[in-house]
From TrEMBL:
Keywords: DNA-binding, Transcription, Transcription regulation. This is Helix-turn-helix transcriptional regulator. SUPFAM superfamilies: Winged helix' DNA-binding domain (SSF46785). Pfam families: HxlR (PF01638). Residues 12-110 form the HTH hxlR-type domain. InterPro entries: HTH_HxlR, WH-like_DNA-bd_sf, WH_DNA-bd_sf.
Length: 120
């Protein structure tokens, strides 16, 4: 995990939320776990744009902040599974609203992306 050389200002709720959930794939990881996709390789398959290493790093950060908990079977090869903690479940109502917002505005964003690619 990256350690900052200067103190962070964590008096702002938005900054606190971004500290925990601000990684590129963290909300997608939480969404996948909430849908029952609990193994890192399966989470990676559900988020094909992210590398497995990035998924594992972001899972470790979510674990550190108590958003998820990890269980591992004592077999070979090890099988790790993640689940949301009660603290992690508190983000779900907001995640649902973000998903609804994204669904409503997806055509607009796709159109803008197409315009951007055409301009290049």
């Amino acid at each position: 995990m990256y350690n900052r050389k200067t103190d962070e200002e964590l008096d702002c709720g938005v900054r606190v939320a971004f500290k925990i959930f601000g990684g590129k794939w963290k909300l997608c990881i939480i969404d996948a776990i909430n849908k029952g996709i609990v193994r890192p390789t399966d989470i990676h398959r559900s988020i094909a744009s992210a590398t497995l290493r990035v998924i594992e790093i972001q899972l470790a950060e979510l674990l550190f902040y108590g958003v998820v908990e990890k269980s591992a079977e004592d077999i070979y090869p090890k099988k790790s599974e993640y689940k949301l903690t009660p603290f992690g479940e508190t983000i779900l109502p907001l995640l649902t609203q973000i998903d609804k917002w994204g669904t409503v505005h997806s055509d607009f964003v796709k159109q803008r992306q197409d315009e951007l690619q055409d301009a290049e």
